[in-house]
Each structure stands twice: as structure tokens, then as C-alpha cells.
Design a protein that fits this description.
Number of domains of chain A: 3
CATH class of the largest domain in chain A: Alpha Beta
Largest interface: A-B, 86 and 81 residues
Radius of gyration of chain A: 27 Å
Largest sheet of chain A: 11 strands, mixed
Order of helices and strands of chain B: HHHHHHHHHHHHHH
Radius of gyration of chain B: 24 Å
Number of helices of chain B: 14
CATH architecture of the largest domain in chain B: Orthogonal Bundle
Strand content of chain B: under 5%
Strand content of chain A: 15-25%
CATH class of the largest domain in chain B: Mainly Alpha
Oligomer: heterodimer
CATH superfamily of the largest domain in chain B: MetI-like
Largest sheet of chain B: none
Number of strands of chain B: 0
Shape of chain B: elongated
CATH topology of the largest domain in chain B: MetI-like fold
Shape of chain A: globular
CATH topology of the largest domain in chain A: Dipeptide-binding Protein, domain 3
Helix content of chain A: 25-40%
Helix content of chain B: over 70%
Number of domains of chain B: 2
Chain lengths: 619, 320
């Protein structure tokens, strides 16, 4: 019998060991959950919003976006001042003497040169390597480096030799200094020379991918791969206790996929602007569990409302607002913002759901290539056909019948009113009669002779439902036959990338406050131009805008480009504008920005702990 | 006994090689670019540099390089390096999806959680299963027997995510337990372990019930009763001991199943275990992570079965 009990005793020992060795940390003053896992804290490798939000706690760029201003103005960051040359091509930044790394070292101009070189070099694997191609010589340097690495790998005499790989690396650094218009004449001055005036450059310098890193730390983890000549960086420098940053917080602990814990950085330049004494970013993957965690008080801010019942969550919010319609009207008239209105109304859990416009659009790609992947002629190569299809989409039906969480029908690719000084074109209005007319003129009266229309979507979320709804619009109005193809996400992306589709779902989020962040992906041959759209007129408008010195005229040129893209050519059909879907108690949390840019300065959030003092009235 | 252990351990490298090549070939054939992480694509120069660095251009180059470092041969040949870039002996490489993590770190962080969860669920399964099995066997065909039969049917057939989501809603909203985001206390372990234990409990209940019914009819039980032993002693000591032998054999596959197959439960309860990486690595085509998890799971399966075989022989020398 003792022998029989042994397996059970063994299991008990394992469980006890597992529990005793693994105690959770106490709750942080402010906790939040994000949509997905933070994939990296290396600024160069970042790609996801949650990465950038956490990185904003740890690093600070030359400039920062001030979330306390409604239009998200550019404010000084590490750079306390800057001058721009009259031709708009040369920026000279003066670094704040009070800017220190979390290890007490001063932030130097050379640190930015080093960090930006990592962004520009293909070796670090950044998705944003193209972001700095506005700097003089960057394209030439990247081309030289790609060619040099290819030549190295193809040369049997050098491949595999550590000495040869090192010498290639030394040569690369020399080429960089020779070609690229980026220099640090002294520790507090950074000079950047651009190929063309770039009106949004100060917005770019606030962007997460351009945060500085502490060079001597990262260098200790770098090595050159003797086989390929490519430089490798071991991720060990990103561990808590090792990572050195210059932001308001330091990384106190990171238990991967469990919790990231941040504590104030005593060396931070603007420590007075920070009130939180600890921040935790929890990992909760299941959308339902995220909502439950918020409702039980374990979490203060949920950055995305993901469960299938989110429509009901936002319907309850609308109900709450309707119940206080008079107050809402009065407050709106007095100029109160969305969050201020919630704060002025009586406390109610229904008021914890918030939907603000986001800097992203959901749309359908039309394949514009003359032939489809199977070699048959592609009817969507004809702009009139694309216009007819784009005019027939019931976008309101998609937003109100399927999504139901505050999304708004989109007529344009660039979310309207998201960029100061940019007046969006009107887009194509839904017009079934005109759509049928255009289809007839294109040679398909009543949809006769039109091949089976295939809509390619990835098998996640609501994409297939939306596709079915739109397919029904097309069948009823245009008389075409349709089919929805669902594919697993990776396979879907491969098909889209190589043009194996007729119509495919797509989305795009802007990175910086300028129309080009949306328009450049439609340039002929751009790496993200999945549509295969190629219009010399469109490209020429983008080029003209790039050369235009007058900001107003430049915006007009860009608006003309967008009109050409979505009205005349209908290269893509906008469907809805994304919204930021948050859960937070407006009586407890302060500092959330409602700006469409979706940037949140988590380090400057404030939490009101005392219930009694948290009543906040708008006059 | 030693011969058995030596034979099984000698088979391990062969099994791992076969599992490695088969899994890698399947993962390689799946469409998708392992270097893509979102809607945005890396520029072509970046992609080329990454492919060269990770040997992603050829199946055999990748397989060779991976096997070299994962098997410890590279560390044996070249040493482990010095300073911050010092490598582990068995180096499973970087994760392509989670760029800040080495696969070794992920395994070290998440495997103990899965093992703890699996062990706790097996304990619950043993308690529930043996209890239900004994109760059922006392009066076969009686009310208790029917009740345990129905419960074990439910345990086997209702999927984990249904029971898990239900329990989560009940405890989180009803009792105000923070459902997730914390891990390490016995309380955090209870709900996921219970959910995970149900199918195993049901199977154990059936094993025990059949074994008990058979044992209670055996001659030695009649002898024991005739000798005037109290009934509880007859049932719980003499009969149960015999009924438990098949349960011990079942513990091997059950342990492997509970410790490696908890993906759904891990997601529902946000348990930071390894199961999710198994599935996510396939979806993300994160080749380094996928191969690391597969190799660890294969090793666990072989080792658990070996341990249970050894234990079964030791408990009952008649077997084997």
C-alpha cells in the first residue's frame, strides 16, 4: 500500500514545490492589459502598439507627443530645443542637460546616432527600417550594405572567417559615417540632414522605433555572424536589471507572458510629471478573462475589448448615455470632452466602456494586376468595375449589424480629422444605380459574364461575417456571383503578398501624423502595396507633395492623391474606421488621450485612490 | 530493471531525431513567412539579412544548424562563449515571434508551471476517480453507480473550455476571485487543475470501478470477509490495492497528457504554461520555439512512460 501511495506523494511534492517557488507580486498602483503579448522592448524590432506603449515607459525620444493637448502636439523630449534650416532640410537638436540614462550616465547625441544606425541597418530585423529613408544617404547606404553582405556570403574565401566578417563590419561603420547625413558634433548637439523637407519629422522623432538605446550595453551583446556577415544581437540586454533606459520608468521585472513590472526611474529628466509609483502590464490572453479581470478590479485599463459580447458592452454604454441625454447635451454644448462627460455623470459601471476613433482603417483590396494568379483576365483591373463594387458596400450595415462597438463607416483611407491641416476627400457615396451603370459600361450589364467574385479573408474574428454581408450586397445590386474564401492567417498573408486573390480584406494603421503614412503604401512597387496598384499620376502627386515647401499646398496635393486613389481609381474600398475600445473607470483613471493617433503616455497617467476625492465635475 | 532503463534511454536520441525531422518537415511545408509579425512586412533587405542569419533559406541548412546547437554538439566543439553572450549547452535558439526571448528561457519559465498544473490535476483526478470508482463498485447497478457513471460521462464528453469558462464566470463574478493575471497561490491553481482533471478522473473512475468489481468477487476477498475483517478494511485495503494496479500504469500517459495537453485550460484561465506556446508556435511558424517545445514534450513522454513502467514493476513484481 505504501508503494501504491508513492506516485500520489510524488505528485503532492511537485505541486507544493511549484506553488512555493512561484509567489505572485503585490498589485501595482496601476495595472493594464493589452491585446497581445509584448513581443519586444528593443525599439528597433517593435511592430505592435503594445510594444510601443510599454517602450514609452522605458525610453524617451528627442521629442514626445503631449497627450494633455487635444491635438497631440509635439513637445520637447530629450531634445530641449531644435532649429530647422530655412530650406527645411537640416535639423539641429540640442539635448536637455538634465537627460540621463537610468544608470546615471548622461544621454549623449552619439547615443541617437548609434540607435538610429541600428534602425537603418537591415541586420537588426526592424520593420521600420524605411522610416529614416528621408535622411540623406540612407538609401545609398542600405543598398551598399545589402550588396556587401551578398558579396561576402558568395565569396568562399571570406565566408566563415571571423576576421573577414569583422573587417566587413568595420567597413560598414565607415560607410555609414561617410554616406549618412547624421552627426553628433558634440555630446549635446545632433544634426540631421534630410534629402527633402519632411514636415512631419518632429513627429517621427517621437516615434518608438527612434528611441535611443544605451550603446555600450547593447554593444556587449552584439556579434558578427562569420557565415553570413550579418550582425547579430543577443536579446540578453533587454532583461530586467540589465536594460538601461532613459524614460520615466525602469523595468523592475518581466515574467514573460505573465507580468511586466515598472518602477519610477530616479534619473528621469521630468520626474515631476510622473505620479504613479508602480505600473504593471499583465498578460491575459482570453478576451473574456480580460473583461472579468477588469470587473473584479484586478486591472485598471483594458486596451481592447475583445470578447464576442463586446457589442452588448458598448450598447450598455449607449443606453447609459441615453438615460442622461439632457446632461450629455448640456456638457457637449459646454465643450466637454468624451471622458469629461462620463466623469460628470453619476457613477455607473456601464460608463466604463469607451470607444474613441483610432488611426486605422479596415478596407478591401482590389487586385489591380491585369491578370489573376491563374492567368485569366482580371476584371478588377478596370477602374470602373472597382468603383461599381466600392459603391455597393453597405458600410453602415457592417458597423451596426456586425461590429456594434462604436466603429464608424469609412469613406476614406485616412481617418477623417485625424491629421491637423488635412481635409479628407469625400470618397465614393453608396449609389446602387450608378454602380450598375458603371458595371454596364465596363462590359458586364447586370453582372452578365462577370467571373465568380472571390473575397479572401483570414479565418479570424468577424472577417468572414463582414465578407458575407458585403458579398450579399454585391449579389443583390450588381447581379454577380460571389464566394468567400477563408484561410488561416499565415496562408492568407502569403496569398495576399504574392497577388493570389481577387479581393482581399486589409487594414492599415498610421505611424506618424501625416497623410503619407497611409498614402505611401499605394506607391508603385511599395512593399506593402498588396493591390498591385500602379498609377503614374498618383506617384507624381506624392512626388510633388514631397517637394512642396508650403504646408497648405502640400496637404492639398496629398488630398488630391487620396481622391485619385479612392474615388477615381478605387484601388481599395474603405469599409470602417477602427475605434480604440477601452475599459477604464473615468472616476479613477486620468490621463487617457482620446486622440485618434491612439498614443497613450502611460507613464503620465494618474490614478485617484480615494473614492471621496474622485468626484470630478465639469462646470 | 537496469537493462530496461538503459534500453529506453538508448532509444531516446533515435526517437528525438525522428520526431525532430518529421515535425520540422511538416512545419516547413506550412505556408507562411516566419519573419512576418503583423500586417506590416519587413523590407526586403531586412528579410534577406534575417534569413541569412537564421539559415532560413534551406531546410537542411536550418535543420543542421538547429540540431548542432540544440544537441549540445556546438557547445562541445566551440565552447559556450564568455560574458553576456554566453550560451547554454543545449541551445534552442531565439524565438522568431518574441524577439526578446531565447527558447531556453521560455522553456525554463513555462515548463514548471505546466508540470505543476498537470500534477495538481492528476491529484484531483486520482481523488475524484478513485472515490467515484469505489462508490460505484460497492453496488453495481445501484443509484450511486449510475450517478458516478453519468458524472464520468460528463467529465469525458464536455469540453474543457465549456467547463472552464463556466467556472471562471461563476467564481469571478459570484465570489469576486480575480480570475487571472496572478499565478502562484494554491487558489490560482484550483480551478484550472479541477477543469483539467475531469477527463482523467472519469477514466480513472472507470478503471477503478471495473477493478473493484472484479476484486470484490475474488476468492481472497471472500477469505478476508470470512476471517471477520471489518468491511471498510476489506474494501479500502485489500480490494482497492488490486484495483489500483491498472491506475498506476495509466498514470504514465495521463501525466504526459496532463502536463503537455493543457493548452485550452491554460488559455481560458491565463495560466502561464507551455501548452500555449506549442499551438502559437505552429500558428506563428516560430520554428525555433516549435522545435524546442516538441523536443521537450517528446523527451517528457519517453521519460514518464519509463518511470511508470519502472514503478509498475516495483509495485507488482508479477508484471513485465
Amino acid at each position: 500500500m505504501i508503494k501504491l501511495l508513492l506516485p500520489a506523494l510524488l505528485l503532492v511534492a511537485i505541486v507544493l514545490a511549484g506553488i512555493c517557488l512561484d509567489a505572485p507580486a503585490p498589485r501595482a498602483e496601476f495595472t493594464f492589459v493589452t491585446r497581445g503579448e509584448v513581443s519586444t522592448l528593443d525599439p528597433v524590432q517593435m511592430s505592435w502598439l503594445q510594444d510601443f506603449r510599454c517602450a514609452g515607459l522605458l525610453y524617451e525620444g528627442l521629442t514626445r507627443l503631449d497627450t494633455s493637448t487635444p491635438d497631440l502636439r509635439v513637445a520637447p523630449g530629450v531634445a530641449s530645443a531644435w532649429t530647422v534650416s530655412p530650406d527645411g532640410r537640416e535639423y539641429t537638436f540640442t539635448l536637455d542637460a538634465a537627460a540621463y540614462w537610468s544608470n546615471g550616465e548622461p544621454v549623449r547625441a552619439g547615443d541617437f546616432v548609434y540607435a538610429w544606425r541600428r534602425v537603418i541597418l537591415p541586420d537588426a530585423g526592424g520593420d521600420y527600417a524605411k522610416l529614416l529613408s528621408c535622411i540623406r544617404g540612407v538609401d545609398a547606404f542600405v543598398a551598399w550594405r545589402a550588396q556587401a553582405v551578398r558579396a561576402f556570403a558568395a565569396d568562399p574565401a571570406r565566408r566563415g572567417s571571423a576576421a573577414a566578417a569583422e573587417s566587413l563590419w568595420t567597413e560598414t561603420l565607415e560607410q555609414f559615417d561617410r554616406l549618412v547625413g547624421l552627426e553628433a558634433p558634440d555630446d549635446r548637439t545632433l544634426r540631421v540632414i534630410l534629402t527633402r523637407p519632411t514636415p512631419y519629422f518632429l513627429d517621427l522623432t517621437s516615434f518608438g522605433a527612434l528611441y535611443p538605446v544605451f550603446p555600450s550595453l547593447v554593444q556587449a551583446y552584439e556579434s558578427v555572424d562569420a557565415q553570413s556577415g550579418v550582425q547579430r544581437t543577443d536579446p540578453g540586454w533587454l532583461k530586467p536589471g540589465v536594460l538601461v533606459g532613459n524614460g520615466p520608468f525602469v523595468l523592475a521585472a518581466w515574467r514573460f507572458m505573465r507580468e511586466m513590472r515598472f518602477e519610477p526611474n530616479p534619473h528621469y529628466r521630468d520626474a515631476g510629471g510622473v505620479t504613479l509609483d508602480s505600473v504593471a502590464c499583465l498578460s491575459i490572453r482570453d478576451g473574456n478573462a480580460q473583461v472579468l479581470a477588469f470587473r473584479t478590479g484586478a486591472v485598471d485599463w483594458t486596451t481592447d475589448v475583445m470578447p464576442a459580447y463586446r457589442g452588448e458592452v458598448f450598447a450598455a454604454k449607449r443606453e447609459f448615455r441615453t438615460a442622461h441625454a439632457l446632461d450629455v447635451e448640456r456638457l457637449t454644448a459646454a465643450g466637454a470632452g468624451e471622458i469629461d462627460i462620463d466623469r460628470a455623470l453619476p457613477r455607473d459601471p456601464r460608463a466604463h466602456a469607451h470607444a474613441f476613433p483610432a488611426f486605422g482603417t479596415y478596407f478591401y483590396n482590389f487586385n489591380a494586376r491585369p491578370r489573376l494568379a491563374d492567368g485569366t483576365p482580371n476584371p478588377f483591373a478596370i477602374p470602373a468595375v472597382r468603383r461599381a463594387f466600392a459603391r455597393t458596400i453597405d458600410r453602415r450595415g457592417v458597423c451596426e449589424g456586425i461590429l456594434r462597438a462604436g466603429e464608424t463607416p469609412a469613406a476614406t483611407l485616412i481617418p477623417p480629422r485625424s491629421i491637423v491641416g488635412y481635409a479628407s476627400p469625400t470618397g465614393l457615396d453608396p449609389d446602387p444605380a450608378l454602380a450598375r451603370e458603371e458595371l454596364r459600361e465596363a462590359g458586364y450589364p447586370e453582372g452578365r459574364g462577370f467571373p465568380m467574385v472571390e473575397i479572401l479573408v483570414n479565418a479570424e474574428g468577424d472577417h468572414a461575417l463582414i465578407a458575407q454581408s458585403i458579398a450579399r450586397d454585391w449579389e443583390r445590386t450588381l447581379g454577380v456571383r460571389t464566394r468567400v474564401l477563408r484561410k488561416e492567417t499565415r496562408a492568407f498573408r502569403e496569398d495576399v503578398k504574392s497577388g493570389r486573390f481577387m479581393i482581399s480584406r486589409a487594414s492599415w494603421f498610421g505611424d506618424y501624423a501625416d497623410p503619407t503614412t497611409f498614402l505611401e503604401i499605394n506607391r508603385t512597387g511599395d512593399g506593402n502595396n498588396d493591390r498591385g496598384y500602379s498609377s503614374p499620376a498618383f506617384d507624381a502627386l506624392l512626388d510633388a507633395a514631397a517637394q512642396e515647401r508650403d504646408p497648405e499646398s502640400r496637404m492639398i496635393l496629398l488630398a488630391r492623391a487620396e481622391r485619385l486613389l479612392i474615388e477615381d481609381d478605387a484601388a481599395l474600398a474603405p469599409i470602417y474606421q477602427y475605434v480604440q475600445q477601452y475599459l477604464f473607470d473615468p472616476h479613477r483613471l486620468e490621463g487617457i488621450s482620446t486622440h485618434p493617433h491612439s498614443w497613450q503616455d502611460v507613464g503620465r497617467f494618474r490614478v485617484r485612490l480615494n473614492e471621496a476625492t474622485s468626484e470630478h465635475r465639469v462646470p | 530493471m537496469l537493462g530496461l532503463i538503459a534500453r529506453r534511454l538508448a532509444q531516446l536520441p533515435l526517437i528525438l531525431t525522428a520526431v525532430f525531422l518529421a515535425t520540422l518537415a511538416l512545419a516547413w511545408a506550412v505556408p507562411g513567412n516566419p519573419l512576418e509579425r503583423g500586417e506590416r512586412r519587413p523590407p526586403p533587405e531586412v528579410e534577406a539579412a534575417m534569413r541569412a542569419q537564421y539559415r532560413l533559406d534551406s531546410f537542411w541548412a536550418f535543420a543542421g544548424s538547429y540540431a548542432d546547437s540544440a544537441s549540445g554538439l556546438r557547445a562541445l566543439r566551440l565552447g559556450r562563449g564568455e560574458g553576456p553572450t554566453r550560451r547554454p549547452v543545449f541551445d534552442f535558439g531565439p524565438s522568431l515571434q518574441y524577439r526578446d526571448q531565447r527558447v531556453n528561457d521560455i522553456l525554463a519559465d513555462f515548463l514548471p508551471v505546466s508540470i505543476t498544473l498537470g500534477a495538481a490535476s492528476l491529484l484531483i483526478a486520482l481523488a475524484l476517480g478513485i472515490g467515484a470508482g469505489v462508490l460505484g463498485a460497492l453496488r453495481p447497478g445501484g443509484v450511486l453507480d449510475a450517478a458516478t457513471l453519468v458524472l464520468s460521462l460528463v467529465g469525458v464528453s464536455v469540453p474543457n473550455f465549456v467547463i472552464g469558462t463556466g467556472l471562471l464566470a461563476l467564481f469571478a463574478l459570484g465570489l469576486g476571485w480575480p480570475p487571472v493575471g496572478e499565478w502562484g497561490r494554491a487558489r490560482d491553481l484550483l480551478l484550472p487543475a479541477f477543469t483539467l482533471s475531469l477527463p482523467f478522473a472519469a477514466y480513472i473512475a472507470r478503471l477503478v470501478r471495473v477493478g473493484m468489481i472484479e476484486a470484490l468477487r475474488a476468492d481472497f476477498i471472500r477469505t478476508a470477509r470470512a476471517a471477520g475483517l471489518p468491511e471498510w478494511r476489506v474494501v479500502l485495503v485489500y480490494a482497492l490495492k488490486n484495483a489500483l494496479l491498472p491506475v498506476v500504469s495509466y498514470l504514465g500517459p495521463a501525466a504526459a497528457g496532463a502536463m503537455t495537453g493543457s493548452f485550452v485550460v491554460e488559455v481560458v484561465f491565463s495560466v502561464p504554461g507551455l501548452g500555449q506556446h506549442f499551438v502559437n508556435a505552429v500558428q506563428n511558424k516560430d520554428l525555433f520555439l516549435l522545435m524546442g517545445v516538441v523536443l521537450v514534450y517528446a523527451t517528457m513522454l519517453v521519460v514518464f512512460n519509463l518511470v511508470v513502467d519502472v514503478m509498475a514493476r516495483w509495485v507488482d513484481p508479477r508484471t513485465g
